[in-house]
Amino acid sequence: MAKVSVIPRINTSEWIVYTLSDSRSRDEIRYVGITKNPDARLSQHKGDKGRSHKACWVRSVLRDGGSLVMKAIEAGLTWEQATSREVAIIADFRSRGVRLTNSTDGGEGIPGHEASDELREVRARNATGRVHSPETKMKMSAWQVGQKRPERGPAIAEAKRMSPPAPGTFKGVYPRGSRWTANIYLNGKQKYLGAFGYPEDAARAYDAAAFDAWGSKVWLNYPVNDNRLLAA
Questions:
Q1: Superfamily for 134-230?
Q2: Pairing of strands 25-35, 15-22
Q3: Of 189, 190, 172, nearest to 181 (Cα)?
């Protein structure tokens, strides 16, 4: 049975910022979060049945005989301090190429709490510099205004291609065992693109095939001008 490692008990009236990693590769941090109850939070991670990147990764670790290692990297924080540090740490890790499974940039908070001016400033600072291509902006705008989807035929397929993936997931990527597969539908038939060790790699394989097939008339997981796509 897979084991779960947990950090030592701390004062549960205080918040901590923690990381999750696989016991077989402890130095590779895959998730950053905050909690004031490590035991309960770790149990939530272990029992997550969702399809998010993090949930799929956790299931693959436990299924393959590994264990989750939860490590407190900052402790003794107020809720506002913890959320601010979570946002900053996630941004720092991502800027250094860490393969986090977080679906968001952190700092979402919990019901009953309002973000402080400091936290809002951190969020704004971390969002600075994110530039979408004109094509991406047009797609996002069209989707947000509730563009009607055609009812039949090729128009339906085009509408599906132009739709974004569900939050925390990649288009054309599905978990299979400890790996992720990439698939694409072409001319009404599913085409298998391969199995990959990381969902990001599978997402780029889908993007490359989708861009080859439809050019700009498809919603990609990564922008067309992303060097990671060009290298796929």
A1: AP2/ERF domain (3.30.730.10)
A2: antiparallel
A3: 172
